[in-house]
């Protein structure tokens, strides 16, 4: 008789599974796995763990790269994500000690490109038989930032992106106000604001193309061009999860391919939202 069958003891298996899922959520195992998986990306991995005295320790993480990008969790150089998961598993062990007790386990994690995740846990002798092949593959397509096509594009355009970044870094944001008209014309106002306060003493204009916005509170990147800028799949996604570094990288990629002179980025709200635009004149 398996560990799960002993816990069920004639009860409805689906009800027992839901009960165990509540234990996982109460201990924060699902949230710790989200942290281990990083802020975005397709994931499919299996974590093995066991009780060692008063603590639960992770013994292995099984994963293989997927052909459409992602698979293993990202690097965890400080070990903080792994430590958070071990704390959650220790809480899980304590919470289940008076009921469905276990001494070792395995938890599988599968997440698709849009961030929908599934967590599956087994314990004791059931965990000994668990393997990565038991987990369903996440559906295609991959996350746009992890797809091989995207990584190849960034590698190809890296020198031009570096030059664009260098030029953009030299543009000092000394303007008092700015506006973009019809997504095509950037106005920079110096010495004053045309809408508030004293009038500007100087106005500079430059052709531009609005590229995207990034909302850090949601970790959300959104293309803002009226139609896809290029044919690759990266540019066909309206919106996707990202980090600030990733948002900066893909907008540099787009602007470099458009042969922009520099990349304009400015806050657009009190929550830290940023707009990116390719500017075609100094």
Q: Which structural class is indicated by helix and strand composition?
A: alpha+beta
Distance between the termini: 74 Å
Counted up, domains total 2
What's the CATH class label of the largest domain?
Answer: Alpha Beta
How does the overall form come out from the CA principal axes? Answer: elongated
Radius of gyration over all CA atoms, rounded: 25 Å
Query: Can you summarize the main beta sheet?
Result: 7 strands, antiparallel
Instruction: State the assembly state of the protein chains.
Output: single chain
- Number-wise, the strands total 11
Summarize the amount of helix as a percent range.
Answer: 25-40%
Strand residue content: 25-35%
The number of distinct helices, counting runs of at least 4 residues, comes to 7
| CATH A-level architecture of the largest domain | 2-Layer Sandwich
Low-pLDDT stretches are none
